[in-house]
Amino acid sequence: MIKDIKFLLCILSLLVFFNVSVAQDNPTGENMKQEKVTKRVGSLIKVKPEFEERYIILHKYTFPGVLERIRKSNIRNYSIFLLDGILFSYYEYVSNNYDADMKAIADPTTKDWWKLTDPMQEPLPTRKEGEWWAEMEQWFCYDKLIKPSSQAQRIGLVAEIIPGKEEEVKNLFNNFPKEINEATSYQSFQNNNIFFKDNKIYFYYEYAGDNIRSSFTRLSQFEKYQTFQAELNKLLLPKGTGNWEIMKEVFHTD
After folding, report:
1. d(Cα 42, Cα 250) in Å, to the nearest integer?
2. Which of 79, 49, 35 has its CA nearest to residue 195?
3. Of 151, 140, 157, 167, which Cα lies nearest the Cα of 40?
4. 222-228 CB contacts, 8 Å cutoff, 24+ apart
5. How far apart are CA 242 and CA 204, in angstroms?
6. What integer pLDDT is reported at residue 4 of this predicted model?
7. Is the pLDDT of residue 91 over 50?
8. HSE value, Cβ hemisphere, 13 Å, CA-based, for 84
9. Mean pLDDT of 45-65
């Protein structure tokens, strides 16, 4: 009996050790518990035309030390999208000392990374003093998750507001019907965020389903969604066959 108990304790110890080791060796793996997001950041910068392709390739091979520093600074779910020479980044911050964590990013490895990326970029003239990436104003967030962001498809869109209609668009999102939020979740759309800068709105969201076209078709049949989109479209400039343009994903962390 004593031998059986000792054997059982030995097995339990090994299991605990194995689980702790996996958690330590896989710091970028999926968390069992969703971390609390305390800040969501959307920002913009230009990429110079002659460097666009090189910038995309470079981000496919981001320095491991840069990724590690991003995580240590409590940044999660970091994505960068590109369209017409504009880079749109989105990330989530999950701690309580944002300024200190941002300062800590400037370690030697990340500074070496910036030596490669900074010459490819051109800050917006409308950025605030001291900014490199111009931070945007967030107008809307519905952050309910169906599954972890690492398991979802990340999508970036942009639309241009008709000059003089900015406040009307902002008011639309301030009064966003909760029924649409519920409908988007039901159709596997999650983590919806709207940001504003320079007369344009940038939309970051995630799709957690299996067929985004079918889900969108079903969502577009919802009457309140149709009404909201009709009101919004009146305030946006048409682009091709619609108002929204899809941005190319350049980078993301899990």
Report:
1. 15
2. 79
3. 140
4. 222/180, 222/183, 224/177, 224/179, 224/180, 224/183, 225/180, 225/183, 228/172, 228/176, 228/177, 228/180
5. 17
6. 41
7. yes
8. 6
9. 97
Reported confidence tier of residue 34, pLDDT bands at 50, 70, 90: confident
Name the DSSP letter for residue 146.
S
List the one residue out of 166, 165, 116 whose CA is nearest residue 136. 166
pLDDT value at residue 33: 67
CB 216 within 8 A of CB 186: no
β-partners of residue 206 are 154, 190
Span 93-102, pLDDT tens digits: 999 999 999 9
Q: What is the CA radius of gyration of the chain?
A: 21
Rounded to whole angstroms, the Cα distance separating 141 from 170 reads: 12
| Measured distance CA(64)–CA(75) in Å, rounded | 15
Encoded tokens for 2: 């004593």
DSSP state of 12: H
Q: What are phi and psi of 242, to 5 degrees?
A: -160, -160
**Residue entry with tokens 């999508």:** 155
| pLDDT above 80 (res 191) | yes
Is pLDDT of 55 > 70? yes
